[in-house]
Amino acid sequence: MRKPRARSGRSTAKSGIAGAAALLGAAALVVSAVPAQATAAQKANDPAEVIPGKGTSTPSLVDGIREGVKASGSPADAARGHLADKKGRYRIADPGRDLAPVQTVTSGRTETVRLQQKHRGLDVLGGQYVVRMEKKDGKRVVTGTSGKYFTALKTDTKAEVGEERAVQRAVAATLARLGGKKLGKGDVPAARGGKSKAAASLSGTARGLVVLPRGAGVLTHHVTVRGSDPATGQPVLQEVYIDAKAGYPVLQYSGIKTFGAARQAAPGGSPAKETGGGKAPAAGDRHPGVAGSGVKYDGTTVELGLYFDTARGEYVMRDSSRMWDSSKNVISTWDARGKDVMESSGRWPEGIKEFGSKGPQFDKEATEAGAVDAHWAAGKVYDYYKKVHGRDSLDGRGTAVDSLVGVTYLGMPYVNANWDGTKMVYGSGDEEYKTLSADLDVVGHEMTHGVVENSANLVYAGQSGALNEAVADYFGNAIAVDAAGISMDDPDAGLLGGDLCRTKSRRACALRDLNDGATTSKNFLGVSFGSDNGGVHLNSTIFSGALWDIREDLGRTLADKIAYKALTEYMTPLDGFTEGRNAVVAAAKALGLSAKDLNTVTRSFNAHGIVPDWEQALGVDTDLLMGRLNTAATGVGAGGGWWATSKSNDDGTEAYSVYAGRTDGKGSPKPMSPNDGRYHVEPATDGKTVVWLAYGPTGTDVLSRPLAGGPVRKLYGTTDDIRGLGVEGAVVVFEVMDSLGGRHASYLRAGDKQPTWVDERREDTATARPSLKGGRIAYAKSYLEGDTYRTGVEVLDLGSGQKKLMTQLGAPEGIGATAVTGKHVYWLADEVVDDGQVAVRRANLDGTGTTDISKEKGDGALFASSLTASDEAVTVTAQLPDTAYRNETTAKLWQFGTDAAPARVRVSCNRGEQDSAAAAGGKQVVWIDGTTGYTDLVTRTRPAGRCG
């Protein structure tokens, strides 16, 4: 068992909802603070311009130096030698041991060395330090450094959870995030020959041990989970970090970088792919190719780089001329029409070919497929980086560039695009939207993700993910604007995706506008990593807007050089907006900008609110119950005038503990769980007892403790996945997912050694999402009726033992959360194949009077994920339909009354994400709120109204 971590007082660390450094999920990326006296002494003896690191003794940026270093040996040796020589500045004990070379980029006299931090031989997530040098006449000088080196790491590197167990936990955690919100027919293992659709849809691969840099460090298993979302069919590429001491998923985020929401290619190009003539030709067999042409969507005839494939007897979209003098790799455009996005993202679909034509002029079919635009645009983006920045392809070493065009989604149109770590994948488009390759700024955006991945490698979550998106947006827009000859003062110059629509105007069609004039840090949206990967699209224009302003004021040539230099020579994986600003300003200085132009750069960031401690300016309309939880996806319980939630310590190092407090805010929260190194999460309370889950290295336990005090009792333990706890008096309910993906709701009474399964744990039945009130348990049920599987809601009366299926209005494909009160049963019903809207449904306790208080179809239909209810109100966590990434896209709390025609109102007008709502009685709700950039537990006793 892990040694307990000491409890601490009020937290000061930012949650994963915050961003930048707060990537590390549930808790912030914080280490022990730099002693003030050390910083003062450093300033007194060091003429360098030093920006201190947050929570580390190593500076985040050092500039304004020209310090000699030994020229012999490799650039990495010289860089580490400099850090060792200046130990008083950098506080890195042994650079030769703790910093491993990642990449050295030489451009003329300059050398940029990236070094990966190691802790006792293990990688530290996001721990990367950059040393910039110049070499001339056999001499080297260091001109600056930047990055993150975490000086407080002390954790041991012995895992108590095995790799196989970690993979199981990672897959279960991903399933809980993706498919756990609904119960469908595919969740019955017997219906699929022994394994549920959810369990069959995902698989995990262990990537080794990694240290998360929280406080003294958290040892984790890194697991990549791949497959498809069991509910939507969308591709899944999830990076999950499992605490190696207790087995809890402390961080997870998606690795797929989309335009509207991996493994790097090997140096020198991608593996050969199947073509119509067998394998793609080896590099030595290629020649510069031939010039052909095609017509873009806009009617313009453009030149295309082609290759005559003798095996196929066709000209194919394989441009070998651009990299003929370097790597001899190619730019290829592949026909993926009819291939599902799931089999195209993160993998190579079988049987696809490069687009071909009998002659060198491609016809209308290639235009409509988006192939002409994709191939032409890929060449334009390659040319931009080569001619403007001297960069040979995405990795700077001439890697092959592959574009897959025309992918679909479950046989239906797909309107999105992504970079998956090795290639671009473009959706088919639909009746309104052209194929996603039909706009140069989309192609530039996706290819720039490849440039980012092969330079700063900004982690795609939270603020670092938003910075990743911002850089991709900036360069995608810059390339498109220049190619079209659009002036930067054109009102539409900042639009992204404006040329994708068939009928709408550019402004009505665009997904984002870098010149919207309104996006500042005051509009920052705090969301969890389960929503837009922590706001990577929602918040990107805060930073890209500042870069766009710089381009408008300083001109395209100079602004692009500044942004590129900042990305490739200064930024590191966990940089957020503040570090990004510092990188851009330092890059501008290095390029010799005048004082006036430097002022333009800083003014642009100031105008967008990117200033020190900008997160402190975010306001709320709620009452704070417990601040800065430093947790995520851990749930909230409420009942009988009390709440219960999980919390970590100041730096997020401590495994989570359960606290309880009064919903009226009086008194101090009290700790309920033991501080034993396990993760104590997902609590529920009825105002007398608190129950919760404890994740340990060998399994998960259901624990209980009276609010009045007394010992902690273990009610049940298993190696299966548990979720959905509820408590009332002597009864506890929960759901278990077994190794085959089967889901079964159960309950425990006082003195029970084993649960009673509401479905007898039958293989042909699944039950889930239980709720408990008044001696009744409501739950979703998937069951066999004749030869057909159906889904519905059932209520079990514990007193009589009778079960009653609620009347449905149709034939639901899936059932979401349930809630039972003294008057009604509520649930989420999904009956229609659509974009994910669901109905909010209500019935009397006897199953009669079924009605929809919010319909699945029509204006205002909700994208709901959960609900909670009291006798006076039902509160739903949901999003409204929206075509843009903005505040309205994030999860909000909507409340309905219990009368015949209940009106819908917003519980709170806070910005950002509101999640894990629990009804506290009357109309009061408690929930976890992300508005301030922290995970705060908040409440409102009355709804806020319309929030106009």
UniProtKB/TrEMBL annotation:
Identification of the protein by name: Peptidase M4 family protein
* Leader peptide range in chain numbering: 1-40
**Has UniProt tagged this entry with the keyword Ribosomal protein?**
no
Q: What GO annotations for molecular function exist for this entry?
A: metal ion binding; metalloendopeptidase activity
Record domain Peptidase M4: where: 292-453
Keywords of the record: Hydrolase, Metal-binding, Metalloprotease, Protease, Signal, Zinc
Q: Describe the family membership recorded for this protein in Swiss-Prot or TrEMBL.
A: Belongs to the peptidase M4 family.
Q: Which residues form the active site?
A: 446, 537
Q: Which InterPro entries match?
A: Peptidase_M4, Peptidase_M4/M1_CTD_sf, Peptidase_M4_C_domain, Peptidase_M4_domain, Zinc_Metalloprotease_M4
Question: Which organism's genome codes for this protein?
Answer: Streptomyces cinnamoneus
Report any one BP term from Gene Ontology.
proteolysis
Ranges for the Peptidase M4 C-terminal domain? 456-610
Spell out the residue ranges making up region: Disordered.
42-61, 265-294
